[in-house]
Amino acid sequence: MKIAYLIAHLGRTGVNGVVLDLVNQMQAHHHSCTVFFLEKDGDGIEYPCEMACLREIQQLEGYDVVHTHGLKPEIFIFKHLWKRKGKKFDQTRFITTLHCYCFQDFFDLYGKVKGALMGCVYLLVKTAFDRVVCLSKDMMHYYEQWLPKRKLTYAYNTRDICLANLTLSEDEHNMIKTFKGESTLIGMNCVLLYRKGIDVMLKALALLPQEYKLMIVGEGKEKDAFKQMAQTLGLKGRVLFAGSHPDAYRFLPYYDIYAMPSRSEGFPLVLLEAAAYGTKVVSSSLPVVKECFSDNEVVTFDMPDEKELAAAISKAIEDKDLGERLKERFDKDFSPETFYQNYMRIYQDA
Hints:
The strands form two sheets. Strands 3-2-1-4-5-6-7 form a seven-stranded parallel beta sheet, with helices on both faces. Helix 1 packs across helix 13 and helix 7 (198-207) packs across helix 11. The longest helix has 15 residues, at 14-28. The radius of gyration is 21 Å and the shape is globular. Helices cover 40% and strands 17% of the residues. The protein folds into two domains: 2-158 and 335-349, Rossmann fold (3-Layer(aba) Sandwich), CATH 3.40.50; 170-333, Glycogen Phosphorylase B (Rossmann fold, 3-Layer(aba) Sandwich). With 350 residues, it is of the alpha/beta class. The protein has helices at 14-28, 71-81, 102-110, 112-124, 137-143, 170-180, 198-207, 223-232, 269-277, 287-292, 306-318, 322-333, 336-349; strands at 2-7, 32-37, 50-53, 65-69, 93-97, 131-134, 152-154, 184-189, 212-217, 239-243, 257-260, 281-284, 299-301.
């Protein structure tokens, strides 16, 4: 099968990480892949296949599947194919994967007015596609309000990471070793946004004993506000804003707990990374988490209750086998091979 993947840029984002997992698995099963991008965004992901800048629709001729990820590539397809595909694309299956709950996330990113308009555009461009893939059953039900049910399906993500290669640089190793010391370290790898629940995590940390510390890997527009909040809460020396680091999952061996107090997520790749490694996870009671993992695998709490989060962290620390059970579930239901089989079913049935 000849497959074209369309992305907005080559940057190191969660969406592009999913495309990398798709390319790795498809090529491992002897399919031919090309990644097309609309713009080159500095130093980004190097995909192990042909890569090309997409300028015109004719570049997509001859592919069995054209699979887009992100709004800008969807708009490109919509502009050229919204009326009809034409004979040149009669045999091509056009597929897109949705990576968010559009109105929830767009309201947070752009405000209510702009977010509502962006959400409407987001839904409109999906009409150009043969199949619209959601990341969970819950997300599929969410989009059934606006999109034809016959086009909707779902496939869980995976994380195809090399667990044997979790090496930190000397500076990174010294940073985390110096900060952690003999403490119990809670880790978060995320963009620093309100949606990620960092405010609730900071409040929960203030309720936990002094030996608990928090390390946050990532950058974001609300970083300064969270730093000020940590200071106000009296958390000096207990919170490390580590900044951006590539392949942040490399820090997982140093975390005693991975915290994910998000207010909204499509399908959190960081949760799958923690599961692949076997790190204990505490998460907000997101629909996708409740759908995919039992209380015996991920300790959940109700947002935005910092007392419940603090209690969940204490519970997770006491459960010695929590991470091992989570890894077993990953290997069973979210492995790269399962991911491949799910997408091949979608490609063939579209």
